[in-house]
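To: structure desk
From: M.T.
Subject: fold request, one chain
Message: Could you run this one when you get a chance? Sequence is below, nothing fancy, just the single chain.
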Amino acid sequence: QVQLVESGGGLVQAGGSLTLSCTASGSTNIFRHNVAGWFRQAPGKQRELVAGITQGDSIKYGGSVEGRFTISRDNSKSTVYLQMNDLKPEDTAVYYCNLATIFEEYWGQGTQVTVSS
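Reply: Done. Structure tokens follow.
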């Protein structure tokens, strides 16, 4: 079993930056060998992909964040990061960490990011 714990959310002004972290516990091998990513869900909207990174460090970004957000992973710490720059009010959402294996998905509890204009 894997548990994901996010940290780093908060309130920031437009144009500011935040870094989210998500650490997996329970099985470091599961983290190391699978895709990790970030999703977000704003009130009244569907959950959407923000960014994903494979075990081979291939990366995919959602269209609205490319060029502003950077995803990275440190397998020695079982941690995936999301560096968010030039934040906009429309980035306001609950951000969820995700770890996807061929058998199941794991989700964190979510961390709130609020960007004020």
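Reply (cont.): The chain has one helix and eleven strands. Let me know if you need anything else for the meeting.
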